[in-house]
């Protein structure tokens, strides 16, 4: 009797019993699948893909936001702009009351006009020749004209005194020549006459010297008044708050005529209209792989990337220090956009704006699928990479 190794129930499920039942078509499918798997495994080292890191980001302008802060205290007279209004650099935005400054400026201008009249008249008197000094006319400054009239009176009085002393001297000389008077009396009359003549010349020189000193003093006073005017104009200019940059105004709520502002108080914010950039916040574990010039692809949250696609850019700056955001340390990475819009297949464009959030993908390198699978398996199987085993 033949010895039976396996019972019939077991033999029905063996390979030897199953293979004769497989058709040629089934074997072909099996072989094709097996070959496809083998081909896929063999091609893993030759298929490369990009490796990237991701981070959150926001679209900003190159220039930082500017706060409007007055340098002086005062009461608001006019608010010339409103929220979301575009403004140009140097455009007046808020004016403070300047009544006190205007009063000081009017007084300053009046004093300058007075000094100019004094200077013009004094300059004419100083430049006048001695023979024409008594015939100067057309003086407009009341003070200088009064001084000049007093000077003319003194010279006229001196001239009359000279004439009297000259007649006395002539009489005395005739009597002296006739031996009627002594020589001493003649010399006294002659000395008196010469003294009066010398006083005439002395009065002229002294008065011209006084006018020259007064002219210098008036010029210095005019320079001081002009300096005060410049200071008042600068102070008045500080009472007009102007746009430091071209941009859009925001946060002007609560500013109205009659409200009082303090120096350094924030009155509003201007968001500059400059080129857009992307500021990304990369975690410390990924920052070591990033460098300027690397390619970045941005997925803007406001646009479905399945329809709009991604916007391209390049890394321009990598921060050297961390910044704490939401209690997490991050590094700021700035990227330059290749274009400021995304487009649909139909050609419709969606323009990027300040404040839009996005996800940035920084292309680090290209690696084969085999390397990626190996790294993944190494992370799973290598005990050194398992924290629990490493602690044991």
Automatic annotation (TrEMBL):
Chain coiled-coil ranges: 208-242
Leader peptide range in chain numbering: none
Record keywords, A-Z: Coiled coil, Membrane, Transmembrane, Transmembrane helix
Domain of life, per lineage: Bacteria
Keyword Cell division found: no
Organism of this sequence: Spirosoma foliorum
Pfam families in the record: Beta-barrel_AprE
Protein name per Swiss-Prot or TrEMBL: HlyD family efflux transporter periplasmic adaptor subunit
AprE-like beta-barrel domain location: 276-362
Membrane topology: Single-pass membrane protein
Gene3D superfamilies: 2.40.30.170, 2.40.50.100
GO CC entries: membrane
InterPro entries cross-referenced by the UniProt entry: Beta-barrel_AprE (IPR058982), MFP (IPR050739)
Transmembrane segments: none
Subcellular location: Membrane
């Amino acid at each position: 009797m033949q010895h039976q190794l396996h019972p019939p129930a077991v033999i029905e499920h063996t390979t030897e019993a199953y293979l004769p039942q497989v058709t040629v078509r089934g074997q072909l499918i099996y072989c094709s699948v097996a070959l496809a798997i083998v081909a896929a495994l063999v091609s893993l080292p030759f298929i490369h893909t990009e490796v990237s890191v991701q981070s959150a980001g926001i679209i900003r302008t190159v220039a930082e936001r500017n706060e409007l802060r007055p340098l002086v205290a005062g009461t608001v007279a006019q608010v010339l702009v409103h929220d979301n209004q575009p403004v140009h650099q140097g455009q007046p935005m808020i004016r403070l009351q300047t009544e006190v400054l205007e009063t000081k400026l009017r007084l300053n201008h009046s004093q300058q006009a007075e000094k100019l009249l004094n200077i013009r008249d004094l300059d004419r008197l100083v430049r006048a020749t001695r023979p024409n000094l008594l015939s100067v006319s057309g003086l407009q400054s009341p003070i200088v004209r009064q001084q000049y009239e007093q000077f003319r009176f003194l010279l006229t009085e001196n001239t009359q005194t000279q004439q009297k002393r000259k007649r006395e001297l002539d009489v005395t000389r005739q009597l002296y020549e006739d031996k009627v008077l002594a020589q001493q009396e003649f010399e006294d009359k002659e000395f008196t006459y010469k003294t009066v003549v010398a006083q005439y010349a002395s009065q002229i020189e002294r008065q011209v010297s006084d006018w020259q000193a007064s002219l210098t003093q008036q010029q210095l006073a005019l320079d001081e008044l002009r300096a005060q005017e410049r200071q008042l104009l600068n102070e008045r200019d500080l009472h007009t708050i102007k746009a430091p940059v071209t941009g859009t105004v925001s946060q002007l709520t609560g500013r109205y005529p009659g409200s009082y502002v303090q120096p350094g108080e924030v009155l509003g914010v201007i968001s500059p209209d400059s080129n857009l950039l992307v500021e990304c916040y990369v975690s410390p574990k990924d920052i070591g792989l990033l460098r300027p010039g690397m390619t970045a692809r941005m997925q803007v949250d406001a646009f479905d990337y399945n329809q709009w696609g991604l916007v391209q850019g390049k890394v321009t700056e990598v921060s050297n220090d961390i910044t704490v955001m939401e209690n997490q340390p991050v590094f700021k990475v700035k990227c330059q956009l290749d274009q400021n819009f995304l487009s649909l297949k139909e050609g419709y464009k969606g323009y990027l704006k300040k404040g839009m959030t996005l996800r940035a993908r920084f292309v680090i390198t290209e690696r084969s699928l085999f390397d990626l699978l190996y790294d993944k398996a190494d992370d799973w199987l290598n005990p050194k990479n398992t924290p629990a085993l490493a602690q044991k």
